[in-house]
Amino acid sequence: MTSHDDTAIGRRGLLATLGAATLAAAASVRPAGATAPKKLPLTAQTTEGPYYLDLGRMRRDITEGLDGVPLEVRFNVCDTTGKPLPGLRVDIWHCDMQGRYSGFGEQGDDRSLAFEGKTFLRGSQLTDREGVAAFATIYPGWYAGRTTHIHMKVLDGTRAVLTSQFFLPDALSEFLYTQVPLYQRTRVRDTLNSVDGIALKAGDTVLGAVREERQRYVATLALVVDPAASPAIDRPPPPAGDMPPRPQGMPPMGGAGGAGGGRPMHPRALAGAARLKALVPPRTTS
């Protein structure tokens, strides 16, 4: 004999089963006129640049004790449907507070510093089940001809599905470079986001969102990738001799050191009202 409780449980089970079946059927049948979910745009590929090293050092903290303004970088890796992609390797590398890369010689404004064998501000992480890879680092500095940027690469095994750079807000960079002693230079930063050829070509998919938290900044960027992709990698040769590399997308800088084969001139830094206009984008009206 079936009890009242057994009947109630059976009814609830039947309703749950019917409900699940109804939801499944609804999901499989698209009403007339309905559109497919909009896909996310893929994150733009950019040049790898001349300073990549495949170290494979799996670590969250890449500072190696370097001083600088603390920055956490969080990548959310997903496909075009927004589905997280766990287990992919994310590499990150960027310059220090004075614009110098580890692992290479001829660094610094006068190209007199050597950092071969050093590994600061480089590291790798595997994305977790939510597709997140996070790094503890410092806010990067700048060097002539480039705006403030951080390099990243997403790999599935040994296959790179994304090689790109992301760009930090000019106003925040300007504040740090002029007010924090570790970042101050005798020269004014010559290239902003609005004139950097690589940033302009890459577009909005590589603009990081930055927020201030207690004693650090946090930069977040969604990396939307095609897991089956095998894009060609633009890999400039390492810098050598007196000629620094000209990044892909950057026009010749003209002057006596332009196409004639001499050392390229640094771009002229904006000043006054023109610089302020470039640092603070105009308000849009609805």
TrEMBL record:
Gly residues bias locations: 252-263
Domain Intradiol ring-cleavage dioxygenases, first and last residues per copy: 48-150
Molecular-function GO term, any one: ferric iron binding
Record's protein name: Protocatechuate 3,4-dioxygenase beta subunit
Superkingdom classification of source: Bacteria
InterPro entries: Intradiol_dOase_C, Intradiol_dOase_core, TAT_signal
Pro residues: bias regions: 234-250
Bias kind Low complexity: ranges: 267-279
CDD domains, A to Z: intradiol_dioxygenase_like (cd03457)
Region annotated Disordered, chain positions: 229-286
Record keywords, A-Z: Dioxygenase, Oxidoreductase
SUPFAM superfamilies in UniProt: Aromatic compound dioxygenase
